[in-house]
């Protein structure tokens, strides 16, 4: 008999099923409206679906090259050069991955070893810290405070030690829906210049930014780009989160090491989707105005929620909207989110989940990447609370 408990040393002791899985399961079980997990519930472009169908019928069903399909890497290289002014070499500096999740795993695994420290800005997307730990590193959380969630760079800088190997940034930001400004990027540049600190820039919501704001990609800051991985996701841009197709951009020295990890984790991403995405991306009109579609959804949702007792916080990007509920209840976020799902039929995510110390400020995250009908039905229920 194998003694699993003593024989297997858990890489992630204490890790539980994520809140997204838990809340989505609860929503399904109770037939509640699911505004918890971040995924669109509207249709994907029929043209894009047709392109996948065609790719499959045309026989593009075997392994893609390890780095990803050359046509798709070329499209990304063109898009980053056009949008942010930096040309990444499609052959040596771009890799297609199985979602941004796998790109983040590979990037962190590439650079983090035992004893390394990583600055993680909290509240943070939940995969960063476990991936750092699996590689023997230590996350050093910097906690965003107040309700504007702005970075105070002088405070963040104090977390740097001689073991700091990486800082992770995410703009537009999940879960707070804030965006980094040009000034923030200049501060990051000042802070890292002359050091060996690397940057992982999670830009999966690069095209979902509102109110005329401009996405500040690392690619628009050549000095920062020299030390950075940029991570993106086709799932977010083309409303196909289930395809799990993403990418990583990095200077050749970083990318060649990244590919050593990537090829031993998945070898290559999904082939027919890559063929279809390359053809679809060729026309920037297919995605460059999704910010308008999403800002209309945000505005519509806010209008519908006007008569509720929830207080909205500004949403500048992503497809999330935070609401404070302190005028309704003083229950902890998780309890209130659970009760809202059970008693009122709407599932959300407690913001406390994204802090390592479960900091609780009576705020919930709502996903508005939903049809008008879903938003109308949800807000009708929410306005009764
Ligand atoms: C900030 C952030 N990074 C990465 C991901 C993962 O993207 P993908 O679905 O392409 O793996 C998500 C998905 O929710 C996200 O919100």
Describe this protein's structure.
This protein folds into two domains: 4-44 and 288-382, Aspartate Aminotransferase, domain 1; 46-286, Type I PLP-dependent aspartate aminotransferase-like (Major domain) (Aspartate Aminotransferase, domain 2, 3-Layer(aba) Sandwich), CATH 3.40.640. It starts with a helix and ends with a helix. The mean pLDDT is 96. The protein has 15 helices and 13 strands. The chain is α/β, with parallel strands linked by helices.
Structure summary, number of beta strands: 13
Task: Give the overall shape.
Answer: globular
Ligands (ions, cofactors included): pyridoxal-5'-phosphate
| H/E element order | HHEHHEHEHEHEHEHEHEHHHEEHEEEH
What's the gyration radius in Å?
A: 21 Å
* Class per helix and strand makeup: alpha/beta
User: Roughly how much helix do the residues carry, as a percent range?
Assistant: 25-40%
What's the helix count?
15
Uncertain spans, ≥5 residues at pLDDT below 50? none
Q: Span between N and C termini? A: 54 Å
Biggest sheet descriptor: 7 strands, mixed
Biggest sheet: strands side by side, in what order? 2-8-7-6-5-3-4
The CATH superfamily of the largest domain is Type I PLP-dependent aspartate aminotransferase-like (Major domain)
Would you tell me the overall average pLDDT? 96
Give me the CATH architecture of the largest domain, please.
3-Layer(aba) Sandwich
Strand content: 5-15%
- Can you tell me the CATH class of the largest domain? Alpha Beta
SSE inventory with pairings:
Blueprint: H1 4-7, H2 19-30, E1 33-34, H3 46-57, H4 70-84, E2 94-97, H5 99-111, E3 117-122, H6 128-134, E4 138-143, H7 153-157, E5 164-170, H8 182-192, E6 198-202, H9 222-225, E7 228-233, H10 234-237, E8 246-249, H11 252-265, H12 271-281, H13 290-304, E9 311-312, E10 320-324, H14 333-344, E11 346-347, E12 349-350, E13 363-367, H15 372-382
The structure holds pyridoxal-5'-phosphate.
